[in-house]
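Example record

The entry below shows one chain as it appears in the dataset: sequence first, then structure tokens.
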Amino acid sequence: MTAAPPEPGTLAIVARGESWVVVDKPAGLLSVPGKGDEPWKKDCVASRVAAMIPDATGPLIVHRLDMDTSGLLVLGLTAEAQRQLSKQFEERRVEKRYIALLDGLVEHAREGEVNLPIRLDPENRPWQIVDGLHGRESVTRWRVLTYETDRTRVEFSPVTGRAHQLRIHAATSIACGGIGHCIVGDVLYGNGYRRAGDVGRLVQTDPPGRMMLHASYLAFSDPVTGERVEAGSGSEF
């Protein structure tokens, strides 16, 4: 079940500079306007920041989080800042970390790296699939933080930023190069990943609830001063 869209309003500002702002996105809120006329699809991070900072002149959005993912987003407040920040993401100069709860106990390793070629499955949008021929490189470093009864809390450090990358890397079986344990609450890859191409064990998520994935840390260079900026957000679960 997708997290219910949050009530329209403001966003928590975690850090702000002359030409950028870092906000903490709640689960259930879009990063940019969605397709369709439903009012909740117009409510998004971009529109809220524009309302909160009306003198911003930039296109704002630099990167995105899935609607069901919570956590940190940096937005450019000028066109030049947006361009500079986007370039940092493209050149992999931005450091990102996520906290996730995985279903089951990850016992085969305490840390590792997943490197899988993935692409969109056009016949089953928005699913992404592993495709050794046409997929694009996706790399994630991960480590176990704690074991919590029948779940494992992990930290993800993505090197690349493909759509659904962390979700696929978690859910893909160990035999196919993944971690073999889906993110709790992931309705796409938690209870339907076999359909998306994996041949490994199908791992069921909990009954309906939010997806347990939170963008907890961002580090980037201020587009004006060049100084390194670090922003953190405690896990929501």
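Notes for this example: Residues 8 and 150 are 35 Å apart (CA to CA). Residues 192-207 have pLDDT under 50 and may be disordered.
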